[in-house]
Design a protein that fits this description.
With 253 residues, this protein is an alpha/beta fold. It has one domain: 3-Layer(aba) Sandwich (Rossmann fold), CATH 3.40.50. A seven-stranded mixed β-sheet has the order 3-2-1-4-5-7-6, sandwiched between helices. Helix 1 crosses helix 2, helix 2 crosses helix 9 and helix 3 runs parallel beside helix 9. The longest helix is centred in the last third of the chain and has 22 residues. The protein starts with a helix and ends with a helix.
């Protein structure tokens, strides 16, 4: 396909053939996951399942790909489906507008995928997904916290047990260990940077249930919504996509 001509020039036709047959499931279409999804489809991934229960909110517009003033109130999965189909009409894109949890995990058929991407905010659901993904043959890539970050040069990729300086990763690690740990290695995108908020919003008072469960304050009983800039979540998401693309490239060489 001509839309992948430049990708083919860089990576070769064998990469495009491999990518077209790979199956990816991506959990979370926020600031990280939405950009990851688009980069995967633009790179020739032929099969992708998008999972997110939320609708677009005005507060998403500063950082999330599906969020514009025209899409407020629409399900994120529907907006992303339309956008990705416009990019590659031949891609097989499946959407599930539901939350991932211990009650719903059996609905996703994780064993049938080559790659699982964790871009979930909720600590509880994130830990459960990681635990379940590590029981499958699929390769897992996960995003740690992208809030309170401003410097792209401080982003890192590491095997999960080697991640340092990230409060979310520490909270995830503690919960995984409490449940017996996981044997499988997987890689994460993270940053040790901790930029401080200039303002403060109480998530509970705002009725923001997503923020109350989010990665921004994994320890706090009183959840504060932490600030997030436009570009850092996108860079986290693009880096996650690059891990999958480079893994496929290594297979195709």
């Amino acid at each position: 396909m001509e839309i992948f001509q430049r990708t083919g020039l860089l990576f070769g036709d064998s990469f495009l053939e491999e990518a077209a047959h790979k199956k990816v499931i991506l959990f979370g279409l926020g600031g990280v996951g939405s950009w990851c999804a688009e980069m995967l489809v633009r790179s020739g991934i032929g099969h992708i399942t998008l999972v997110d229960a939320d609708v677009v909110a005005e507060s998403n517009i500063n950082r999330q790909l599906p969020a514009t003033t025209a899409t407020v109130g629409r399900p994120k999965v529907e907006v992303m489906y339309e956008r990705l189909k416009e990019i590659n009409p031949m891609a097989e894109i499946t959407i599930q507008q539901r939350i991932y949890s211990s009650e719903t995990h059996s609905l996703f058929g994780l064993d049938s995928y080559d790659y699982i991407v964790d871009a979930i905010d909720s600590l509880e659901h994130k830990v459960h997904l990681i635990r379940q993904a590590c029981l499958t043959p699929a390769k897992l890539y996960a995003s740690m916290g992208a809030a309170l970050k401003t410097d792209p040069l401080k982003m890192k990729v590491a095997e999960f047990n080697k991640v340092t300086g990230c409060p979310l990763a520490a909270a995830v690690r503690r919960r995984l260990r409490a449940g017996g740990g996981v044997d499988k290695k997987f890689y994460c995108v993270f940053s040790e940077e901790q930029f401080k908020n200039k303002g403060s919003i109480d998530a509970e008072k705002m009725g923001d249930t997503a923020a109350m469960q989010s990665e921004t304050n994994p320890y706090s009983a009183h959840k504060r919504i932490n600030g997030t800039c436009s570009y850092m979540p996108a860079m986290f998401g693009m880096t996650l996509a690059s891990l999958i693309i480079r893994d496929i490239l290594a297979e195709s060489l």
